[in-house]
Amino acid sequence: GASADTGTDVVVVGGGQAGLAAGYFLRRARARFVILDDRAEPGGAWGDYWDSLRLFSPAAHSPLPGWWMPEEPGHEYPSARHVTDYLAEYERRYDLPVRRPVAATGVRRADDALEVATTAGTWRARHVVSATGTWRRPFVPDVPGRDLYEGRQLHTVDYRSPGEFAGQRVVVVGGGNSAAQILAELSEVAHTTWLTRRPPRLMPDDVDGRVLFDVATRRTLGGTDGGVGDLGDIVMVPSVREARDRGALKAQPMAERLTPTGVAWADGSTMEADAIVWCTGFRAALDHLAPLDPFDADGRIPLDGSRCRREPRLHLVGYGDWTGAASATLIGAGRTAKAAVARIAEDLGASRPR
Ligand code: FAD
């Protein structure tokens, strides 16, 4: 079991790709550190994605630092399972000290250190890297009538495969990639309706994750701050392209409210539905940082690079572009982690990661 009141240089909270990338550079910096992850198994959120999910880009374009993802035999775009296997092997390869399952419940200031309270005792550290991702905080918009609706409601995080919805009337809400991909496969077996707040923006067919990462790289190198969304929001993976060609990707404006049996629009029209799938995104999972009071009036954490302005011993890696360009992607996590660990190593007086 984990020991209480353990002292170390750095505690990394979260053992997904972002936490592992931080671990890689902490090893190279010869820092003493531990990675705490609340899951039983390696892989972070990749272990929870729906069954058919594949990466946006070929394996060679989705590397963590040091050891690149091998190809998945027979598949140009690797499966989520392949990514979890890669992350599990990555941990072993670099002998990363991941403790599982250990959930961080609160990070506090304690004299000259930060104290990380967990489900397995308390760690003291000179620095904390938070890499808890967004999957633990699904977001559902506050649409009136949500509590009145008697059908089934689920979020992206609850969805695994289309089979159980066969023959049902299913409403998919959301204008991003999760919605488009889940809609694509549901529409093969169910009567689907797609609701989006604004018309969905499909990327050109020949744009995949490679192009998105190139855009992110240009931004890292000092380009514009325009989102990757400049290109559109939805990557036309094969299942989504096929659904579009079938005519299954026609979106309707978002409903005004839910009724006990379906949805209703402002003009009085209604539609019945057996299930509503909220593919409405995520927020950063930051509850454990609340005791540090790192938030501004808008509820955001102001950063210098990945370093928290209100608590310079705290760094954030992953989550989204606000912690570093494409920081929430496999290829971007390494860049942000490298920069964060360089700052930490300066403070620790240890050797810098090269
Ligand atoms: P996570 O993988 O969520 O890891 C965080 C870890 O911290 C988890 O194990 C979590 O359980 C744990 N944790 C959370 N809170 C605590 C706590 N308080 N204490 C301890 N542990 C905690 N990126 C790409 O590069 N290519 C793609 O093709 C791609 N496809 C995607 C498809 C989907 C559907 C989604 C949602 C994302 C996709 N991404 C893709 C983006 C990104 O790669 C993933 O979201 C990735 O999982 C983010 O990694 P992370 O380490 O930041 O977070």
UniProtKB/TrEMBL annotation:
Domain of life per record: Bacteria
GO molecular function, one term: monooxygenase activity
Protein name: Cation diffusion facilitator CzcD-associated flavoprotein CzcO
Key words, A-Z: Oxidoreductase
NCBIfam families attached to this UniProt entry: ArsO_flavin_mono
The keyword Cytoplasm is assigned to this record: no
Organism of this sequence: Nocardiopsis aegyptia
